[in-house]
Amino acid sequence: MSNQIALHEGLFTWPSSKPQLLGSRCTQCAEAAFPAQPDCRSCGSRDTTIVELGDHGILWTWTIQTFMPKQPYHSDETPETFRPYGVGYVEMPGGVRVEARLQANSPDQLEIGMLMKLDIIPFRTDENGDQKMTFSFSSAGKA
Amino acid sequence: MDVAIIGIGLHRFGRSPDMSGMQQGASAVRAALADADLSWADMQFAYGGSQDGGNADSLVNELGLTGLQFTNIWNGCATGGSSLHAAYSAIKSGEYDVGVVVGFDKHPRGAFNPQPKEWGLDDWYGETGLMLTTQFFALKTQRYMHDHGITEDALIRVSEKAFTNGSLTPTAWRQQALSYEEIANSMMVSDPLRKYMFCSPAEGGAALIVCNADKAHQYCSNPLFLKAAAVRTRHYGSFEVFAPSQAMQVADAPTVTASKAAFEQAGIGPEDVDVMQLQDTDSGTEIMHMAENGFCEHGEQEKLLREGATGINGRLPINTDGGCLANGEPVGASGLRQVYEVCVQLRGEGGARQVPNEPKVGYTHVYGAPGISGVNIITK
Ligand SMILES: [Zn+2]
Hints:
heterodimer, A: mainly beta, five-stranded mixed barrel, 0% helix, B: alpha/beta, Peroxisomal Thiolase, Chain A, domain 1, nine-stranded mixed β-sheet, two-stranded antiparallel ribbon, 35% helix, 20% strand
């Protein structure tokens, strides 16, 4: 029986029926960051707390990754099975633009300003047969 | 005190299968020394950098163990700008009179594959396929086009100009002009950027001999003057490569701040520049860098490119040797190649690619990960 394990701890709430992206917010200047970090890039304060950034957002920019990246890319794909994927920055309700994989992978499916929703999806299977989960966004219609 | 450039040398960009990166660096230094009519033993200091070619200070094994101060500089794509800035400061301080700046590289074929740890990032960022410079430039260009009404026509015209200029440059890697249609129909790599809109990692070397300007005429009859050298990193809110997130607020790019600092140092403005080299990792970045360096308004590029204003005979000649697009990018050498080309133009030695009307003021700009820019202003 395969388990679904977060690819990296602390990026999103998991396991969860309604997962949220996690980030940090500075208690001095209120700026948010993803992933969470102990220092604030805006004001240099070391006073930050972990916060939920939300589970939806607006597409700020996008592209399509058409070729299979070299290492350190580490998926289950081979050059033969590689499927292009979208990449974008999504404006989160938590007040930060997050870079993410997008499930849409053709230009006619993507438009700046689209409403996007967060999905936690299997990314690869590890040596124990467990599914490593990552975050991704898919279209939720016009904003 | 001013800083003069009295010697320039290039080891041709592209592929030199029989030479190591280091040997290409040494070749560039020898060419620059010959150009200045000086010897390696005359050099009091050196600054050099390379990404994949080895430690720059090992060049002494090729050039001679003279005991000079040799400091290695590594600052991503801005390595050349940073090395020249260090040399500028060394001479300005009065500590040294004459020295060399060198950059070289020899990259494996194909796209770069940076490692997350080296950039302060966790492995997941690279593993999930978010850590590609090509992606970043596409993402930034896509948003820029949306905000400023730039169309694919402008992207194509930048590449068309680059390969035309490359065809006029004997030292360029890509010497074949490409038609508008060939570029427009080339494979889409990362929307909106196509194959012929990206530069490739390559090989090559570039070197400059710099000296105290008060003594320049002892060494040569046609010195050029380095009027400004500025290097700046990013502010909070600027949209940069290798950023898992960005702030909602928008700050000026490091190019804007480096450019302003350089113009202030030189006491001139963008309108005074006759020939310029702007980092063109891809055609989208050249467009953005035109405005970030102050040479036009955001959005004006579309019209300027359509009019041919950035060509060799235009009023804003940009990347006269074909830039990174036609020369490839050996990271350690690339920024110094820009300075080399501007010096060639100011000396009037550009041959088929010479900018007309005796250009007097040149400008170079490098941009690198994770958000660093270096600008130099050079005058006759
Ligand atoms: Zn703060």
